[in-house]
Structure formats: structure tokens, C-alpha cells
Inverse folding.
């Protein structure tokens, strides 16, 4: 084979690669759009009246996730299934964002941490690598860390809205999450960098709980809304 | 009294307070159990990555040594011997690559690609350099990949693999060099060919430089054909490739112009001063 033939063949392979990337990029853009819509919807919980409508907002968000599932379905068809990590970078960011959104919905509904399997199911993908398009563990953990900072914000805003019991529950949850992450031996990569931010979220929530405690507001929450001021 | 002291201590050390809270976390809760499994999964993945990085480094070092050995081929009278020795060295490198292939059984190769890519590129450089010296042509990516299919026959050498070879384990392992790794390796090869060209003139070999400039031009044309279809690294190498090609072309020019005037035994001297000039030019910004 002559040198020019070889390079022509290589160019062909690289060109095909580029086409695949182009296709993936299109689907990922659509996914990003849906993720933004869900985020906007859930942002409503931070505003005063939003606290009463949490179940409704969650339900609406869940409806949007069906769009995500169809978009994921189309993403799967864009590249050979055994080359997930070759194109991973293209959807990594949006997948982490979607994990966060799913985890947020599940937290608002049940105040528990969504499992990896449950997120995979919500997004219409697999939890295991062996079974096809899957959720990488690092992406899952990144999404969970985003949830932590969102909850720190929620703790502050729930106090403003007069819900004094929520910060205490969030505090318990975040503390458990923090001890979970302490179990991991993280490498010096992006996940580690995100994890380093967790302590500030923990601190913020502890401050909120402290503010409530010294004013006796946490007791009021446990007694009931009709307690003394 | 002591209670107040304790309280102050707590205020000063919020960490102590936090640790107490930590102990309230139930170590067998669903969340903690799943994080324990995450710990295992991440550690396994990182360990594998580290093992692959180490293998890749070994492959790089051995490949580099092979290239140095092959540079001696030109000046040494015992050319055949050196070629054989390089073959032995490359076989050793392939044994390392076999270990890489075994690590990657059932894995997505691209997940660990960054760990092994430098080693593979260096191997491509070494093996294509040897191939060029032997056949004066460019080895194809298919040819390289054909040599990276390993069968279980080699088991006599590594007896420890017999213990864990169950029926489910495949009896062949293979590793595919990706087109991009191949391209980057070939781009490095051109640097070696440039060195080969300069040193061959030093030995009074007049034909090799022209042959090399011909060959390098073909590769350069190939790379320009690919242009920016490939990733960023490939375009970056194109610049160095151009410089190498210019050096070889200038060498051929010098030979052509002055070769007819100067007695052969003095050619080497003329040439070495010329290349020094080129190097100096390059040093300038």
C-alpha cells in the first residue's frame, strides 16, 4: 500500500469520526435544552410561594424527564455502543447536570439520596457498563455534589420563607453525604475539586442551623407552627 | 466550672463538634453502604489506571532504547546483528503490550486510553522506524495491529497465567492502535528519519538523504491531506514535521550543489558545518 493510500484511509476514518461527533453534539444540545427547562422549573422552589408547590413542581419535572429518555434513546444510536468512553466528553457535562436534577427531584419528594440505579432509570440508561449506555460513577458523584450546594441554598431560602424545620433535615442529610464522600479515595481530578467544595456547603448549612438554634427557632419548628415567637 | 470550660472548648473547635455529629451517622445506612461500594469501584479503577500508566512508561522507555539502537545500525558494520537485536527488544515491548491487553479484557479501551497512549505512540515510532530501515517503506496501521494479537501459546513463558486461565477467559488478546496514536507515532518517526538523514551524510552515504527526502515528502503530503480532520495534537505535530522536512530538503540541496565540486571525503565536513548553520538559525526567535 502506498503512503498516500494509507493516509487516504486514515483520513476516511477520521472523517467518519467527525461525523459521529457532529451527530452527538446535536443530540447533546437538545439534552442541554431540556435540562435547562427542568432547572428553571425547579428553581421555583427557592421563591416564597414555591414551597407550597413542591410536589406539583416535582411532578412536572418528572414529565420533562420523559423527553430526556427519548433524547437519550436517540443519543445511544449515534455511536457504536462499545465506544462509550471515546465520546464520553461530549455528554459528560449534561449527564452530570441531569443527575443533579434527578437527585434534586428525588430529594424534594422523599428527602433521600437517589441511588445510582434509580437515576439511571429516570434518565432511561443503564447503571452497569456491561449493559450498554451507562451512568459513569464519577458523573453520578459529581451530580450528587451539585445537589449538595443546591441544598445549602435551599436551607437559606426555606428559613426566609418561614420553614424552620427543613434546614435541620437538610443538615442531617448533608452530614450523611459528607461522611459518605469521606469514604472515597479520590484522585486529584475534577471530581476531587468538586468534593473540596462540599465542606463549604456543610459549613453554610451548619451556620443556618446555628442561627435557628440560638433563637430557639428549631424548637418552634418541632413543636409546630403555632409555637411562641 | 468544668461544664463552662467544655462549652468554650467546643466553641473554639467547631471541628470537634462536627466529628460528634459524624458519629451519629449510621454506618450501615443505605447511603453509607452504597458509598462503600463506590469506594471499592473507584479504587479498582484507579489501581488499574496506575498499572497501565506504569506499563506505558516501560513501553516508552524500551521503545526509545530500540530507536537509539537502530540509529547505530547505519554506522555499524554488523547491521544484521543490530536488526536482530532490535527485533528481540521489540518482542519484549510486545510482551508488555500483551499485559496491557490483558488488563483491558472486558473493559472499554478508551476509558484508559490516556494512560497507555504515550507508550503506544512510542511503540509505533520504534516499530515503524525498524520497518523503514528494513523495507524503506511505511508500515501500515493494520500491519502494526496484526503484530499485537497475542495467543495463549506464550503461556510457557508466563506460567502464572495458567493458574487464572479459566474457560471463560479468551485465548487470544489483542490491542488495537488507534488511527490517532498511529498518526502521532508516524509524525515522531519523521524526526528520527531526519536524524538518520543527517548522520548518514556524515558517513558518506549520498543516496540515503535523497531517498529520505522523497519518503518524508510523501508523509508530509499525507499529513497535509488529513489537515485539521484529525485532533489538535496531529495539527500541532505538522509544524515540527515541516521543519524536519525542510532540514532534509536543505541537506539534499547542499549535496546536489556542492557534491559535484567537493571531493567525497570532504563532503562530511562541509555538511556538518551546514547543519550547524541550520541549527543556529532555528535557535533564533
Amino acid at each position: 500500500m502506498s503512503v498516500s493510500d494509507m493516509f487516504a484511509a486514515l483520513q476516511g476514518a477520521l472523517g467518519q469520526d467527525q461525523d459521529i461527533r457532529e451527530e452527538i453534539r446535536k443530540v447533546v444540545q437538545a439534552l442541554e435544552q431540556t435540562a435547562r427547562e427542568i432547572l428553571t422549573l425547579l428553581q421555583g422552589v427557592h421563591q416564597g410561594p414555591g414551597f407550597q408547590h413542591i410536589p406539583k413542581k416535582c411532578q412536572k419535572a418528572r414529565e420533562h424527564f420523559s423527553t430526556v429518555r427519548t433524547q437519550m434513546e436517540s443519543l445511544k444510536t449515534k455511536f457504536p455502543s462499545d465506544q462509550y468512553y471515546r465520546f464520553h466528553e461530549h455528554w459528560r457535562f449534561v449527564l452530570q447536570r441531569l443527575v443533579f436534577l434527578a437527585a434534586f427531584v428525588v430529594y424534594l419528594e422523599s428527602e433521600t439520596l437517589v441511588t445510582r440505579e434509580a437515576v439511571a432509570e429516570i434518565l432511561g440508561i443503564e447503571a452497569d457498563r456491561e449493559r450498554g449506555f451507562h451512568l459513569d460513577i464519577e458523573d453520578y458523584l459529581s451530580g450528587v455534589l451539585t445537589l449538595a450546594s443546591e441544598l445549602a441554598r435551599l436551607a437559606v431560602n426555606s428559613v426566609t420563607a418561614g420553614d424552620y424545620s427543613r434546614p435541620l433535615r437538610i443538615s442531617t442529610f448533608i452530614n450523611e453525604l459528607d461522611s459518605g464522600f469521606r469514604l472515597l479515595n479520590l484522585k486529584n481530578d475534577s471530581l476531587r475539586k468538586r468534593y473540596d467544595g462540599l465542606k463549604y456547603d456543610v459549613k453554610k448549612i451548619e451556620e443556618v442551623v446555628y442561627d435557628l438554634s440560638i433563637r430557639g427557632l428549631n424548637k418552634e419548628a418541632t413543636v409546630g407552627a403555632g409555637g411562641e415567637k | 466550672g468544668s461544664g463552662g470550660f467544655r462549652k468554650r472548648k467546643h466553641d473554639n473547635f467547631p471541628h470537634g463538634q462536627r466529628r460528634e455529629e459524624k458519629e451519629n451517622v449510621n454506618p450501615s445506612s443505605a447511603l453509607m453502604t452504597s458509598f462503600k461500594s463506590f469506594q471499592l469501584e473507584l479504587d479498582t479503577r484507579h489501581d488499574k489506571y496506575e498499572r497501565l500508566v506504569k506499563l506505558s512508561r516501560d513501553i516508552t522507555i524500551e521503545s526509545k532504547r530500540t530507536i537509539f539502537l537502530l540509529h547505530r545500525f547505519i554506522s555499524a558494520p554488523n547491521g544484521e546483528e543490530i536488526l536482530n537485536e532490535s527485533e528481540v527488544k521489540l518482542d519484549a515491548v510486545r510482551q508488555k503490550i500483551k499485559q496491557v491487553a490483558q488488563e483491558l479484557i472486558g473493559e472499554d479501551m478508551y476509558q484508559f486510553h490516556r494512560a497507555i497512549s504515550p507508550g503506544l505512540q512510542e511503540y509505533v515510532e520504534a516499530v515503524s522506524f525498524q520497518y523503514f530501515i528494513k523495507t524503506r517503506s511505511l508500515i501500515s496501521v493494520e500491519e502494526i495491529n496484526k503484530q499485537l494479537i497475542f495467543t495463549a501459546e506464550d503461556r510457557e513463558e508466563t506460567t502464572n497465567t495458567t493458574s487464572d486461565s479459566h474457560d471463560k477467559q479468551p485465548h487470544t488478546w489483542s490491542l488495537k492502535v488507534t488511527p490517532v496514536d498511529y498518526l502521532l507515532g508516524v509524525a515522531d518517526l519523521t524526526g528520527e528519519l531526519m536524524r538518520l538523514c543527517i548522520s548518514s551524510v556524515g558517513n558518506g552515504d549520498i543516496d540515503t538523504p535523497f531517498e529520505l527526502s522523497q519518503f518524508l515528502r510523501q508523509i508530509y503530503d499525507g499529513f497535509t491531506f488529513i489537515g485539521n480532520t484529525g485532533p489538535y495534537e496531529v495539527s500541532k505535530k505538522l509544524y515540527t514535521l515541516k521543519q524536519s522536512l525542510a532540514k532534509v530538503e536543505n541537506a539534499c540541496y547542499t549535496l546536489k550543489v556542492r557534491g559535484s565540486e567537493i571531493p567525497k571525503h570532504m563532503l562530511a565536513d562541509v555538511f556538518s558545518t551546514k547543519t550547524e548553520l541550520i541549527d543556529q538559525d532555528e535557535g533564533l526567535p
User: Anything to note?
Assistant: The CA atoms of residues 202 and 268 of chain B lie 5 Å apart. Residues 1-22, 155-168, 280-285 of chain B have pLDDT under 50 and may be disordered. The beta strands of chain B are 149-151, 172-174. The two ends of chain B are 76 Å apart (CA to CA).
